[in-house]
Amino acid sequence: MIVALEGEVAKKNPTYIVLKTASGVSYGVYVSLFCSNQINQNGKIELLITQIIKEDSHKLYGFLDDSEQRMFELLIKINGIGATTAMAVCSSLSVDAFYMALKNADESAFKKVPGIGAKGAKRIITELSDAKMNISNCDLTHSQALAALISLGFKQENILKALSSCQSTETGELVKEALKKLA
């Protein structure tokens, strides 16, 4: 499984880049518009990769930021939300705007994303707010830490207990502190 790629940007389209590695192998990687805006043609970059293998395709999705990658991975777990729609969300909403839309149950923010209608917006809010995020009880930092720990495979109820006794105010430190309590 490919988890990261480093190389030179050989070709750049708005949501797709070709990354040529030092070994001479070139990879096609789908990226969000936010990510694409930070990438320079012929510049050297390292991307975090989510690899999706299906019967008829093998696709790579690249991220400069691990929080955007976690957001993408949460979205593709929702029934009816595929990688293309998840990447459209990543292109339309920043990570902070995404978590705020979930926290406020703002369907209109999700309906602005191409490919998401009223049903899709409700599904995202319902599944991520209730089942996985429990955002109503957390601020943005706790929400991001909760998402990170869920993606590591911990159970939500255990994570919430650990986070409730943590003192850190930064997401990274909060995750580290919670990991110590979950161990």
UniProtKB/TrEMBL annotation:
Task: Output the Pfam families linked to this UniProt entry.
Answer: HHH_5, RuvA_C, RuvA_N
Chain positions covered by the region annotation Domain III: 144-183
Region (Domain II) residue ranges read 65-142
* InterPro entries in the record: DNA_helicase_Holl-junc_RuvA_I, NA-bd_OB-fold, RuvA, RuvA_2-like, RuvA_C, RuvA_C_sf
Asked whether the keyword Repressor is assigned, the reply is no
Q: Where is this region: Domain I?
A: 1-64
The organism's place on the tree of life at top rank: Bacteria
The record places domain Holliday junction DNA helicase RuvA C-terminal at 143-182
Q: Which NCBIfam families match?
A: ruvA
Protein family (similarity comment) = Belongs to the RuvA family.
According to the record's subunit comment, the protein's assembly and interactions are: Homotetramer. Forms an RuvA(8)-RuvB(12)-Holliday junction (HJ) complex. HJ DNA is sandwiched between 2 RuvA tetramers; dsDNA enters through RuvA and exits via RuvB. An RuvB hexamer assembles on each DNA strand where it exits the tetramer. Each RuvB hexamer is contacted by two RuvA subunits (via domain III) on 2 adjacent RuvB subunits; this complex drives branch migration. In the full resolvosome a probable DNA-RuvA(4)-RuvB(12)-RuvC(2) complex forms which resolves the HJ.
Name of the protein described by the UniProt record:
Holliday junction branch migration complex subunit RuvA
Source species: Campylobacter insulaenigrae
Q: Which gene encodes it?
A: ruvA
